[in-house]
Write a structure and sequence with these properties.
Strand order of the largest sheet: 11-10-9-12-13-14
Number of helices: 23
Distance between the termini: 67 Å
Helix content: 40-55%
Radius of gyration: 25 Å
Oligomer: single chain
Number of strands: 14
Length: 568
């Protein structure tokens, strides 16, 4: 009898007698079966892009409706009486990840039964004990990449729809380790100190403590000068008419999953208080990426919002304003009172109050490239087995396999003298990511690997190569680093308006369709990279793209200060 494996592969895995449900079965087990990338994984959660986009919108709307529906439960758990406004900010990062990962895994389980339901299979399912506990929303987001979480969710779906031909063996889940809560330090500020640095401006990419203090003081000053409080924006669930809650047909017991995964910090939110918080209705706050997963800071923002203050979120990475499906920023950041962008003014059909300003991060590296070596710096991105959210692409399995194959094609085809000068920069090393550094070292043991300061390296290299549209691409374009980037447009889909702004980069040779085209470009320009990069077509394309997606300015602080005085 064949085995269907939905958890990590066993030591005796044999592709002739075993069926792996997906690449996630090999996470952390690549050494057991090194050739796993050559296997077929025919079952997908989503059949096409239209289904994926519809599911992303539906699940985001469902998560939004949960923030209202579970307010009594959240208050009961925490012993508080907070409103929907408070709990939406506190719980949404967890709720979106929970709903979207559970729905994605449910579709995968349904697909497995549809394909293999008539076959006599043996399958190992985890028993009912949930194998993890999560300290906060960030820990849960990371935990959705954990094989134990995914095995448990798949088990709960499969046991509900188990085909008669399947034989089940129950596996005991491990005892979940208890997370340790460390109370945040108390903040004591009085008088002028409280006015000057009231944490109205949190950590922003590219801003130092001085910048945050100045912006926070300006926001506080603007609050004092305001004659009439500005009403904050409060919107209803995304994607559904007001008063009509979103619904999903769950196979598993979703209510139980929600209660099992609720982060410990949300069960007693009062422990997150760092000071007595006095809200000033109409006042504004600037929020960076800490707005997601730094619990004490999110608690502060939630209390302020509940008291009538406004929240202005800010862009902190690549893909914003370009990628076709980004449901998490839409439901979490765009739904606040304003969103500061790096230059773009619309993001497809996503509603939002977008404010284009020069990026502090990009401004500090603008035009900083000075070629100091003959290196081709190749910067990779993370390779995950599971989704954290329904963002970017419909077929994450095909993307993963295509991504690894495209890297191998790139380094196999590049000129020998160029390859001698390659510095391969792997992604951060996490247990939830596949070992891309080991993968490259196995296939190309001669390549040098880079582990130092990435920002310094991209300012010094002769040429930068990228196989993704991450923040590094934006940094390189701002720094004026000669760059050739490539990706498969089947997976990295953009909305039409953004596609137009990238087209000029393609015509100039900065962006390529796939590794083969990128290699041809690099082989052709390597002997005179500077001449190509300084050509009029490249100069025009870069300038136009920067203006629309990656603005930088020496006087960015003045632009931000003026906008704060207008909007604060």
């Amino acid at each position: 009898m064949k085995r269907l494996i939905v958890g990590p592969i066993p030591d005796d895995f044999d592709p002739d007698s075993d069926i792996a449900a997906g690449p996630g079965c090999f996470l952390g087990r690549e050494d057991v079966f090194p050739g796993w990338e050559e296997l077929s994984f025919p079952v997908r959660a989503f059949q096409n892009d239209a289904d994926f986009e519809a599911a992303a919108a539906m699940t985001a709307a469902f998560a939004d409706s949960l923030a209202r529906e579970y307010v009594p439960y959240f208050n009961e758990q925490s012993g508080t009486g907070h409103s929907w406004i408070f709990w939406r900010l506190m719980a949404m990062p967890w709720l979106v990840c929970l709903v979207q990962t559970a729905y994605d895994r449910q579709l995968l389980a349904l697909g497995l039964v549809a394909r293999y339901g008539d076959a006599a299979l043996e399958v190992d399912l985890l028993d009912d004990r949930f194998p993890r506990r999560y300290l906060d929303c960030g820990a849960f987001a990371d935990g959705t990449l954990d094989p134990w979480y995914n095995w448990w969710v798949l088990s709960r779906v499969l046991e509900k729809i188990l085909p008669p031909a399947w034989s089940v063996r129950r596996i005991t889940a491990p005892e979940p380790p208890a997370p340790e809560f460390v109370p945040p330090a108390r903040i004591v500020r009085k008088g002028l100190g409280r006015f000057v640095n009231d944490r109205r401006c949190t950590w922003l990419y590219g801003c130092d403590a001085r910048d945050r203090t100045i912006f926070g003081a300006l926001l506080a000053l603007r609050s004092l000068l305001r004659l009439r409080p500005k009403r904050p924006v409060r919107s209803g669930p995304a994607g559904v008419p007001a008063g009509e809650p979103a619904r999903i047909d769950w196979v598993l017991d979703f209510d139980r999953l929600l209660r099992l995964t609720m982060p410990e910090t949300l069960k007693n939110v009062s422990r997150l208080a760092t000071e007595d918080i006095a809200a000033k209705p109409g006042s504004a706050n600037l929020a960076g990426p800490d707005f997601y997963f730094v619990e004490w800071l999110k608690y502060r923002m939630a209390c302020k919002a509940e008291g009538g203050e406004r929240i202005i979120c800010t862009q902190h990475g690549g893909g914003y304003g370009a990628l076709r499906t980004m449901s998490f920023p839409h439901i979490m950041e765009y739904r606040q009172d304003a969103f500061v962008t790096w230059g773009w003014k619309e993001h497809g059909g996503y509603p939002g109050r977008f404010v284009p300003l020069p990026s502090p991060l990009l401004s500090k590296i603008a035009n900083a490239h000075r070629e100091k070596n003959d290196k081709l710096l190749f910067v990779a991105t993370g390779q995950t087995a599971f989704r954290v959210r329904l963002d970017t692409m419909a077929d994450n399995v095909a993307f993963l396999l295509d991504y690894r194959a495209s890297q191998r094609r790139f380094f196999t085809s590049i000129r020998g003298d160029i390859r001698e000068n390659v510095l391969y920069r792997p992604y951060f090393s996490f247990d939830a990511y596949f070992d891309d550094a080991g993968h490259i070292k196995k296939h190309f043991p001669d390549l040098q690997h880079h582990r130092g300061d990435l920002h310094a390296a991209l300012q010094d290299c002769k040429l930068l190569a990228l196989d993704n549209l991450g923040t590094t691409f934006y940094l390189a374009m701002a720094a004026d680093t000669p760059t050739v980037a490539f990706w498969n447009p089947l997976f990295l889909r953009m909305y039409p308006q953004a596609e137009k702004s990238f087209e000029a980069l393609r015509r100039a040779g900065i962006v390529a369709h796939g590794p083969d085209e990128a290699v041809l470009r690099i082989n052709a320009i390597w002997d005179d990279v500077g001449g190509w990069w300084r050509s009029p077509e490249v100069r025009r394309a870069r300038k136009k793209w920067l203006a629309e997606h990656a603005r930088a300015s020496k006087i960015w602080r003045f632009a931000w200060a003026w906008e704060i005085l207008k909007r604060g």
